[in-house]
Amino acid sequence: MQRQVALIKQSLFDQGYLDEQFIELEELQDDANPNFVEEVATLYFKDSARLISNIEQALERGSFDFNRLDNYMHQFKGSSTSIGASKVKTECTMFREYCRVGNAEGCLRTFKQLKKEHATLRKKLEQYFQASK
Amino acid sequence: MVCEMETDQTEEMDIEVLSSMWPEDVGTQADNNQFNVEKPAGDSDTLKEVDIAEKRTMADLKRLPELMNTTDQGTSQLTNLVKQWEYMQDHAVKLLREELKILTKQREEAEAKELKIIEEHNFESQEPENVPVLDDTSHLFRRFKHKKRDALIGSKRVEIDEEFDTVAYWKQKALSLEKMLEASTERERRLIEKLNESLKTMESHSAPVEELTQNLKRAEGFLHFILQNAPIVMGHQDKDLRYLFIYNKFPTLREQDILGKTDVEIFHGGGVKESEDFKREVLEKGKASKREITFETELFGSKTFLIYVEPVYNKAREKIGINYMGMEVTDQVRKREKMAKLREDNAVRKAMESELNKTIHITEETMRAKQMLATMSHEIRSPLSGVVGMAEILSTTKLDKEQRQLLTVMMSSGDLVLQLINDILDLSKVESGVMRLEATKFRPREVVKHVLQTAAASLKKDLTLEGNITDEVPIEVVGDVLRIRQILTNLISNAIKFTHEGKVGIKLKVISEPSFASGMELNADAEEQNGLTETETSVWIRCDVYDTGIGIPGKFKNLKKNKTQAKLLDLLLLPEHVEPNQKVRFSVKSEKALPCLFKKYMQASADHARKYGGTGLGLAICKQLVELMGGQLTVTSQVNAGSTFTFILPYKVATSDDHSDDQDFSDMVDHHQPEPDDTTEGYFQFKPLLGSIYSNGGPVIGNNNFLPHKVMLTSPLKLINGFVADPSNNTGQSETTQVENNGYIDETCSGPCPSKETESCSSSQASSEGGALEMESELTVSSRREDETTETSKQPKILLVEDNKINIMVAKSMMKQLGYTFDIANNGVEAINAIKDSSYDLVLMDVCMPVLDGLKATRLIRSYEESGKWDAAIEAGVDIKISENEQACVHSTNRLPIIAMTANTLAESSEECYANGMESFISKPVTLQKLKECLRQYLH
């Protein structure tokens, strides 16, 4: 069981979904805070779901308010960095890059990819937390 | 032989083609020449007679041959010709030799045959019967036989032998033999003739002079053919740059005009000297080179030549002159220049375009930012009003002293923020042209008094604040009092900020209509539209706000536009300028740098911005407001002696009897002293360490109309209570009565009607009086809190400013592990409020946040620290240069360590963190280790 958890975790790292910040979080977990990582992750997914829907709305509006998009993405990126969601973070960075140069098409594309990475990570982390219980 | 001649000619043709090339190719030619037999070179001297000069050519015939002999180029041409000649001679000799060989061979053959025939004859003579029919023998046989007979002519032996048969037969035979002999002789003769002929031809070929002349002619003809119409000038000049030879000279020049002369002697005008210098340069350097020179001569006008000049050496490798060749390229140059110009224009246009685009972009950006700012400010205002309002309501309930003090701080802070937001909204209103001016009746003296009161309340320096209003200034005028107050407050706080000792004051006087105001009726109309259309006369009042501060230098150092600065943070409306230690008197009209003061976000220098704080909006707002009201704001300054900001505004004079509907702060005066209240004197003093001392200028005695007015505000240290109320003294310089209080002065011991004042202050939220009160109280509270913090300093107080929930959660957990707790602010504004209301030992500040980002928040906090408005609230490092020695009551403001948390993106560079007053930074994501180190460093 323990081994399986370790394996899942290792694969998450190997595939680049997570980075060392996640370990940092795990180290914060102690007896006083036994589910800290999961709590943070849950909060992250809750928060990011909101952000995603915000961005989606903004994108659907057609007229691209890059400033606003950039602001959203900044938050998204901040959160992703904090939990060590490496791949999502990369997409966020890219998205912001596109915002900076005003590339709407690039934004849409990146956002799609971002959602994909986000969903994947969510699934994987859920698995992981499930397994570690 | 004919055929041979032909080959000869083709050879010649080849050679001619080769010889028309430049001498450099001689080597190659020689290599290819298989008949290049070494022979003594042809007599070069003969070449002297060759006439090279033709119609278009001029040559110094005496010098040129000499030149030809002494230079490599010259000799190479001759050598070439000689070689060519030699080659042809060789060839002819060779051909002749071959011919000779053939002939010899033939002869040998003939002889052989003859021998054979003789042998046959011998045989014949022995056996005559066997003689074959001679006719059957070949002609050749017979010929040889004849030949033989010729050779043996006179030998009777044959004839005798032949008598062997009949005589007739032999006769016949003899006859035929004779014929053959004749034929043979004839042949021989012809051969000899031919030999002679070819010898003659050879002789004719071997006349070298003629040959060479021909060649030369051909070569020159060829050159001439090519060069005839070419826009080319060629020449040779000796080492004094005198022409020895020129080809294709300018038509009108005669030989004597050119030969033996230099360019400078021949031509006059632009370019001549240059070309001469160029030639000389080539001569000196000994390296061939090209240059384009434009001549501007009387002779042929403006023409550009591409000139090629090469040095000429003699055989001893000494320079003896130059060859030069010029090609006229005027048209090409013109075209090229045109192209270059077009290209340049194009580039310029492109640059302008991009510049324009940039400007457009910036403008759009600015517009958006402004819009955002306005919206944002508006959004903040509503809830803030709620907070302040509630606080006010709370203040009306029964509170103990401490609670009241706290509440006052709260309200003053709220008011301050409200004020800031209003300013920002004002500015964007003014800028977008939607600002509307109010026209209300107000009393200038009141306004001055209240402004000074307010300023005095937060004064921490040993400064005298004074107001001086001349008699002519009407008691009441009509104008936008709020704006005027805003301007005055702004200017005064400026003055105080940059004045360390001496006095700061306001002077009002009536002036005649200034020249710039000719078109101001419009504004007057606008004011009329705003109501108050009673028949008033207009009056221009000049208001000087003067100080004895450090002054403004003539030149800004490192003038910097601070775009990154917070637009929101004009809280204090502090201006920025001033560079001390220059002693120049100047006025705004003559000084170009000064108007920059009034530009938005202008900072005198980064140093000053940091030292004195402020965002650069203050003066900009003032100027815009003044101009909006149809006035003018100017400044004069003397470094180390002080500055005077002057604004001139038109007002309408209100009739004195309808004052009852006055609003704002004039109403509070109306409350207690409805009639004779024009002059009021207030003396304000406070002692921050002891608590709030609030004294108000008391009742007001005065006359109805024009009064001298002096408001005296003295240093907090001396605790002076003074009254100046001398209606009889109209000079403007009143006596001051000073009352020293060495202790804590409560509200009760201040003015004669304190309760009313208190009331009015708490009810009028934006009034100056209220602000003043609150400021004082805040100081008190702060100082008190200082004590508190020292008591409870075991656990450091940390403020985390972060908008991201996840980050907060993580940070919280980390802090917990490290054994700290902290407060949380979600953005810069919250952070400022938190810092204002509480004392922290460390702030962890996210850089990029909504509402107000970390950089701006930090700047604001620093500016508070430096301007001292909240000084006592913070404890930590040491800073503050303003409060130097003259601040007798030392109230040190400490620097709060602010650590940035950056994502290390472009917008959040560490330099910017430092530049905005941050102590250090942690890059995100924050790790336990980083946090630990940071805390260890800044929390001892």
TrEMBL record, chain A:
Its main location: cytoplasm. Pfam families: Hpt. The keyword Transcription regulation does not apply. It is found in: Cytoplasm, Cytosol; Nucleus. Residues 33-128 form the HPt domain. Keywords: Cytokinin signaling pathway, Phosphoprotein, Two-component regulatory system. GO terms for cellular component: cytosol; nucleus. GO terms for biological process: cytokinin-activated signaling pathway; phosphorelay signal transduction system. One of its GO terms (molecular function) is histidine phosphotransfer kinase activity. Functions as a two-component phosphorelay mediators between cytokinin sensor histidine kinases and response regulators (B-type ARRs). Plays an important role in propagating cytokinin signal transduction. PANTHER family: HISTIDINE-CONTAINING PHOSPHOTRANSFER PROTEIN 4 (PTHR28242:SF43), PHOSPHORELAY INTERMEDIATE PROTEIN YPD1 (PTHR28242). This is Histidine-containing phosphotransfer protein. It comes from Brassica campestris.
From TrEMBL, chain B:
Its main location: cytoplasm. Keywords: Coiled coil, Cytoplasm, Kinase, Phosphoprotein, Transferase. Residues 797-939 form the Response regulatory domain. Residues 93-120 form a coiled coil. It is found in: Cytoplasm. One of its GO terms (cellular component) is cytoplasm. Residues 760-769 have a biased composition (Low complexity). The keyword Transmembrane does not apply. Its EC number is 2.7.13.3. It catalyses: ATP + protein L-histidine = ADP + protein N-phospho-L-histidine. Residues 727-796 are annotated as: Disordered. The keyword Coiled coil applies. Residues 727-741 have a biased composition (Polar residues). GO terms for molecular function: phosphorelay sensor kinase activity. Residues 375-653 form the Histidine kinase domain. Pfam families: HATPase_c (PF02518), HisKA (PF00512), Response_reg (PF00072). It comes from the Eukaryota. The modification 4-aspartylphosphate is found at residue 846. SUPFAM superfamilies: ATPase domain of HSP90 chaperone/DNA topoisomerase II/histidine kinase, CheY-like, Homodimeric domain of signal transducing histidine kinase. It is an enzyme of class 2 (transferase). This is histidine kinase. It comes from Brassica campestris.
